[in-house]
Automatic annotation (TrEMBL):
This is Glycoside hydrolase family 3 protein. Residues 409-605 form the Glycoside hydrolase family 3 C-terminal domain. SUPFAM superfamilies: (Trans)glycosidases (SSF51445), Beta-D-glucan exohydrolase, C-terminal domain (SSF52279). One of its GO terms (molecular function) is hydrolase activity, acting on glycosyl bonds.
């Protein structure tokens, strides 16, 4: 198809409703398969009966989602609010050490208030449980999705979903804003680690498994609502710019970026979160604009073509980015098909503005009723009282996490016979990240950005350093954070831990003026390896990162190089593959993790469709290979700036 000029595209859109515009809408919708609705007559009857009892003001309360720092239980009752959330780094009473019982107690206060306002219609509390119940002190944090993608193990992902749901229910919450179903096109994106990978088929398989696990037992108080997010093409933006513009043809939008949603729908996902990003149809260069205002995709594709009967929730003040809207006033997004508006702090103004818009007919009552019908359908599809105790044990699953860590590790370089280290090995551990649960867990860990925490915030966690001391004995393990205090020659091996500092969302974007050379963004990591490499002991390097990175200079100073991603709280899983099992212990099958993203061979290889990476998708060593890779990796000088 010829690339039309922006002028033609603008004309097309200005004449919305013309045959050309309708043809474009049809092309977008018809790129997707037809799915048939599956309705439950008894559920529908219950929904209709409840809908009839609600006033317009109560209906607006159902579509309004404030944040717990901005609303009290009394206000939930006064405004008949139907749903709340806690953002990353928000805890009951602003206390990051709040126990599961304290979370549960606050949830019960909100629930009681909602039930007084709208008897029989429960309140839903949503949270970003994206790698375990990660806001809660003491909860097990699993590897982020980029590591789970490397396991390629759907059954494991499903089990993690179940364990996460149990933890969320233990705290009295109902809804996990997970899984992210992005199929990442440019690893500069700060949310690359929230994705299972760059292969649509793998994202579909693991996304389906995650939803099945999270929503398992929904009707008997064990499962939680899952969220297919962020619809759509959040991982396809130009240059990986968070909340940017995704350029894709209508066909690729469905085939690549839609793959995860088809899997989630197959799993019966009940909620979808809209993406902050925008979409431009790269085939006809038609700018479809912000997803939060895109009626063709929210309603035409998701609700009609794909017969999605659940609810669509906006992202955090996402409606404010729709042209003509503000955070607190956006009939356009609701009319496009948004059912719940996540309006964390400006919710009172939103409530008033939206009620007025309905009364003035700028939001048709039929659209409001459709949104509330969907919300009630979701609420009545689950048992709200939790069948899980509010205990620390209920938010933990250490052995499952340990197994996930083992299966997520990808061995990119290995001197044959080096790993696993013998139990008699005397090991020098270097790199501050070896003793940091914050570095091990990454973003979305107790706090939103994963920063401003210490190991004390993860009492349940085990750092790699602690895990090595447990397996080898403290006397055989020496820790030297910058590697300057000890002579490596006095040890059997050096274990070096390097990596990215924690980040989340756009704060993790690699800027256009930067590139993927890790040692350029973290020069201390190169200095660390220069300090210990070639000094009489082999060096085993682990990289904690939220994305593949260009590491030739670092791998050349390592005898083994492991992509460890963001493994979470169970560092024991790392030591399992680094150190041989003791007599009688299970012998792990070596390194089974395989890349779900290509691994760059150069500092500008941002694209996940790179033709000649160091390792392709599916790459990685088992550790049992008889011979090593021959020559050192090339280390050419970086270009002054990567091509845009
Ligand atoms: C954030 C994220 C979204 C998250 C939401 C609530 O901005 O985009 O993934 O679920 O806000 O914390």
């Amino acid at each position: 198809m010829t690339r039309s000029t922006p002028l033609l595209a603008a004309t097309l859109l200005l004449c919305a409703g013309t045959p050309a515009a309708l043809a474009d809408t049809d092309a977008v919708v018809h790129a997707w398969p037809v799915r048939q609705p599956q309705r439950d007559a008894a559920l529908e009857a219950r929904v209709e009966a409840a809908l009839k009892t609600l006033t317009t003001r109560q209906k607006v309360g159902q579509i309004t989602q404030p944040e717990i720092r901005a609303i009290t239980p009394d206000e939930v009752r006064e405004y008949a609010i139907g749903t709340i959330l806690n953002g990353g780094g928000a805890w009951p009473n602003l206390d990051k050490a709040a126990t599961p019982a304290q979370w549960r107690a606050l949830s019960e206060k909100y629930q009681a208030a909602a039930q007084q306002a709208t008897p029989g219609i429960p309140l839903l509390w949503g949270t970003d449980a994206v790698h375990g119940h990660n806001n809660v002190r003491g909860a097990t944090l699993f590897p982020h999705n980029i590591g789970l993608g490397a396991t390629r193990n759907a059954a494991l992902v499903r089990d993690i979903g179940r364990a996460t749901a149990r933890a969320v229910r233990a705290t009295g919450l109902h809804w996990a804003f997970a899984p992210t179903l992005a199929v990442v096109q440019d690893v500069r994106w700060g949310r690359t680690y929230e994705s299972f990978g760059a292969d649509p088929a793998l994202v579909r398989q693991l996304g389906q498994a995650a939803v099945e696990g999270l929503q398992d037992g929904l009707k008997d108080g064990r499962g939680v609502l899952a969220t297919a997010k962020h619809y759509i093409a959040d991982g396809g933006t130009r240059r990986g710019i968070d909340q940017g513009v995704a350029h894709a043809s209508a066909t690729d939008l469905a085939r690549v970026h839609g793959a995860g949603y088809l899997g989630a729908l197959d799993a019966g996902v009940l909620t979808v979160m809209a993406s902050f990003s925008s979409w431009t149809d790269s085939a006809g260069y038609v700018q479809h604009g912000k997803m939060h205002g895109n009626k063709t995709l929210l309603t035409g594709v998701l609700k009609e073509r794909l017969a999605f009967d659940g609810l669509i929730v906006s992202d955090w003040d996402g409606v404010g980015q729709v042209p003509g809207c503000t955070d607190e006033d956006c009939p356009a997004s609701i009319n496009a098909g948004m059912d719940i508006i996540m309006v964390p702090f400006k919710w009172k103004a939103f409530h008033a503005n939206t009620l007025r818009a309905v009364e003035q007919g700028r939001i048709p009552m039929a659209r409001l009723d459709d949104a509330v019908r969907r919300i009630l359908r979701v609420k009545f599809s689950m048992s709200v009282p939790a069948a899980v105790p509010a205990t620390l044990e209920a938010v933990q699953a250490p052995e499952l996490a340990r197994r996930a860590v083992r299966e997520s590790l990808v061995l990119l370089k290995h001197r044959p016979g080096l790993l696993p280290l013998p139990r008699t090995a005397r090991v020098l551990v270097v790199g501050a990240a070896a003793d940091s649960l914050a570095r091990q867990a990454g973003g979305w860990s107790v706090t939103w950005q994963g920063r401003d925490t210490t190991n004390a915030d993860f009492p349940q966690g085990t750092t790699l350093l602690a895990a090595l001391r447990q397996r080898l004995g403290a006397g055989q393990v020496t820790f030297d954070a910058d590697g300057t205090q000890h002579d490596p020659a006095r040890f059997d091996a050096v274990v070096a831990v390097i990596g990215e500092p924690p980040y989340a969302e756009g704060e993790g974007d690699v800027r256009v003026t930067e590139n993927l050379r890790h040692s350029r963004r973290q020069p201390a990591d190169l200095a660390l390896l220069q300090q210990v490499s070639g000094r009489g002991a082999p060096v085993v390097t682990l990289l904690f990162s939220g994305r593949p990175l260009y590491v030739n200079d670092l791998a050349n100073r390592s005898d083994a190089f492991i992509a460890a991603w963001l493994p979470g709280t169970e560092g024991t899983g790392l030591a399992d593959l680094l150190v041989a099992p003791a007599a009688g212990e299970p012998a792990w099958p070596g390194f089974t993790g395989r890349l779900s993203f290509p691994w760059p061979a150069g500092p500008c290889q941002f694209s996940t469709r790179e033709a000649r990476p160091w390792w392709p998708i599916g790459g990685g060593l088992s550790g049992k290979e008889a011979k090593a890779e021959g020559k050192p990796l090339p280390e050419p000088a970086d270009p002054p700036i990567c091509p845009l």
